[in-house]
Amino acid sequence: MNEPDNRPSNRGFIKRAWWWVSRPSTRFALGTLVVAGGLLGVLLWGSFNWAMDLSNKEAFCVSCHEMRNTVYKELQETVHFTNRTGVRATCSDCHVPKEWHYKLIRKVQATNELFHKFMGTIDTPEKFEQQRLAMANHVWESMKASDSRECRNCHTKESMDLSKQSRPAQRMHKFAVERGKTCIECHQGVAHNLPAGWVAPLATR
Amino acid sequence: MRYAATGSATVLLLTVLLGGAAVAADPQTIDWAKIPPKSLTLFYPGESTYNWLVGPEHKGARSVRQGKACIACHERDEADLGNIIVKGGHVEPAPIVGKNGVIPVSVQAAHDAEYLYFRFQWKTNLNREGRMHDYVRYDGKAWKWYGHDRNDKSVRTGQQPPLYEDRFSIMLDDGKVPRFAQHGCWLTCHNGMRDTRNQVVGEPVKKHPIFSEARYDADIRKYLALTRTDENASWDKTKPKDEIARLKAAGVFLDLMQWRANRSGPVAMADDGYVLEYRNFDDGRNPFSWNVDRRTMTPLFMFDAAKVGARALRVEDIGNPMKPGSIIKGENAVAFDPNAGWQEGDILPGRLLSRNDARGSAADNNAVYGVWKDSTYTLVWRRKLDTGHPGDDKVMKVGGQYTISFAIHDDNVTTRFHHVSFPMTLGVGIDADITAVTLK
């Protein structure tokens, strides 16, 4: 009678995987493994983040999305692009969360955009304009739901000196606080054109 | 045959009596104390034309271009705006000394099945009724225009006295004019109009293919940008006439009604107009016309001395509430007699009023009563919800919501030297910024 064959090659995938992680190494020293594992971890983590960062770059967004001649061009004409102090907000600053788990969720959601890229949903300026209102509403809804989290990465109520704002801005910001409003409820279209067919709310009340 | 005619006449009479009496309330006898007032602050807008609003001097230009509402930035800002602008600056290059920045107005509104009723109250800056307008004065040899609005050069330099009628204006839309709900009357105000920068008067207007027609004056008045072809909505870049007619037929215009202390108030009326390619009057005939042949400068009617006590007014009569401010056909007027022994300083109104001659859509506002007492006007107004003239009026319905805005010309001013409101919602029997309460 032969002994049972315990070699990994004879096992199923899960058992095999378990075999690899549960058995101590007979070939490499523990220290080597820890150091190599650490380095590998750093490398993987780094490249993951590098990829994340790369996908946050303006050039990346503009390269594969249907925005070069529309929303990106519009952004360039706004104060978020060129201003007195030289601080620029680019696509990801407003559209990708900074916090890691929100960011991951956002990136996964962004794959939906790849689907529409594939389908050609907005591949002409005409199609883009047709969808602009729906897309804008989508962005505004999510910004409202997050209490304008991405706006607040740079702008906070606490660091706002109302006395340095214009007279109407002071008044409206006071109303916004009193009424529990969030940035996007008034500041739609700060970086892009507003969609045709969008009817401005008459009051912030 | 005879019986049939009598029968028809009786039915007609009964219809008029019953139909009329059953629905139309007298706006003077409505129990206004039961109708909640809405307090508005009308403010002085200076020369904030639409061109200015979207230009580099206005911080909110981008928001305006995007279609955001004025009150998105200027909610409850009327008093500050008015008080700042009235002092002069880039929005008011020609301030009027002593002018007030704001006029608080109380508005009440009511309706029944057929009519809309308003009551407005406001305090005037002038310590008398502004019911003098387009007067002519005999200088011993000829009749010459006497007095003008405060912005006129002759008044600013002290050569002529300030004499111009007070007015209360209502602008109304039913949602057909894009952005009126957001930008209100600013939508109608453009550079090139009377008393704005680059104003166009005289020859250039009279040479324009559209404005050369007799019904236009030799200047530019309110218009909608959608009647123009270029981005700046220039006064002369008009769309073709048939295209403008199509817009009108589709109801794309603003209803504009003005109560005038000299030209309509004394016959209990307000005028009725609309804004499209110009500030036009509705079809029909206004309650006012000229009392002077402007070519020969000869008056057409003078006061009936038997009723008024004299054929003409004198300077000291101006502001005297016992003396008439207007000459009214069939009431206090007789045909002008050039040989009546006119004295230097005799004054006659240059406008002739007639309630009976007013007709058509221009005569829709025929129950409007203004009383000036203790420096305060109380103005009550009745207008049919459906005037029966959809060609130049906005047709309203019970349960409908509309956009409305108001303006007051106070203290001898005209054109942009008025006080205005931001646009508001008007609900006929439904909740809105201004709710017309259902009369029981």
**Radius of gyration of chain A over alpha carbons?**
25 Å
Mean pLDDT of chain A: 88
| Largest interface: chains, residues each | A-B, 18 and 17 residues
Which oligomeric form is depicted?
A: heterodimer
Rounded radius of gyration of chain B (Å): 22 Å
- Roughly how many Å apart are the termini of chain A? 86 Å
Q: What about the largest sheet of chain A?
A: none
Compute the average pLDDT of chain B: 94
What is the total tally of β strands of chain A? 0
Total helices of chain B: the number is 10
The helix/strand series of chain A, from N terminus to C terminus, equals HHHHHHHHH
Shape of chain A: elongated
Structural class of chain B: alpha+beta
Q: Roughly what fraction of the amino acids of chain B lie in strands? A: 25-35%
Q: What is the CA–CA distance across the termini of chain B?
A: 43 Å
What class do helices, strands and sheet pairing of chain A give? mainly alpha
Largest sheet of chain B, in brief, is: 13 strands, mixed
Q: Can you count the beta strands of chain B? A: 23
The parts of chain B where pLDDT drops under 50 for at least 5 residues are: 1-7, 10-22
Overall 3D form of chain B: globular
Question: In brief, what are we looking at here?
Answer:
Chain A has nine helices and no strands. With 205 residues, chain A is mainly α. Helix content of chain B is 16%, strand content 25%.
Q: Which helices and strands occur, and which strands form pairs?
A:
The complex is a heterodimer of chains A (205) and B (440).
Chain A: H1 13-22, H2 30-56, H3 58-64, H4 71-75, H5 91-95, H6 100-119, H7 125-145, H8 149-152, H9 167-178
Chain B: H1 2-23, E1 38-43, H2 50-53, H3 61-66, H4 71-74, H5 78-85, E2 102-111, E3 115-123, E4 135-138, E5 143-146, H6 153-156, E6 167-173, H7 180-183, H8 203-206, H9 241-249, E7 254-260, E8 273-275, E9 279-281, E10 288-290, E11 292-293, E12 298-299, E13 301-303, H10 305-308, E14 327-328, E15 333-335, E16 347-349, E17 351-353, E18 367-373, E19 376-384, E20 401-409, E21 419-420, E22 424-428, E23 434-438
